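This entry is passed on directly below:
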Amino acid sequence: MSQTPMLEITNLVKIYGAGKKQVTAVDNISLSVPRGSFFGLLGPNGAGKSTTIHCITGISQPTSGQILIDGVDVVAEYKTARTKVGLSPQEFNVDIFATPEQLMDYMGGYYAIPKAERVLRIEELINRFDLQAHRNVKFQKLSGGLKRRAMLGRALIHTPDLLILDEPTAGVDVEQRHDLWEYLKQLNESGKTIILTSHYLEEIQYLCNDIAVINHGRIVAEGSKAEFMKDGKSIEQRYLEIIRQDDKSATATA
């Protein structure tokens, strides 16, 4: 089994704007996500999580630094790198009049998956996410939980090595959230490397085995779940401690 990290970020910087309007969204972060990990990326709104994800997935171009997915440079080898990552974004960036089956078919076509193979893959994902009864229902008519399942199916159509989930249970009721947790655990146990961002910290505590906290564009804490939860603290308690301490330090040095 390859020991290459599934994701290796080295000295990533992302700056928006120029001159007096210049904003450093990501400030020289380095991060390594082991193959097969269920990795939690935490941070308050505006901390740099989404920008980091956008740089990983090719939505944004890094200002400097390097990102490797399974050893492939996301800038120098964009097309190959893009096939290795699937993204289920927080926002529903889909045609709301398309059905789950159509959404997966469109994305499979984008990745040039042959039609016969696409049909088999869609069938597999429809069954995995219990979408049989909803496969031909327009996206806008689906419940929150079913929409999230359809988004996951779309993200997985090309069998990516790395799956990035940005707030995957936002707006989902408690029962459906727990159902999705079980799906995600199964995916990870089958070998899929997953990066999860979530404001539901009990979700991070239940699912993730490695965690990093980003604040003000910097990684301010990183370690295993066990390290975060030492002294009997919950992930939420430890997270709040880390963020408050970092905010206090930032204010003191401003």
Observations:
- The chain has a mean pLDDT of 91.
- Strands lie at 7-16, 23-33, 38-42, 64-69, 72-73, 85-88, 162-166, 193-197, 210-215, 218-224.
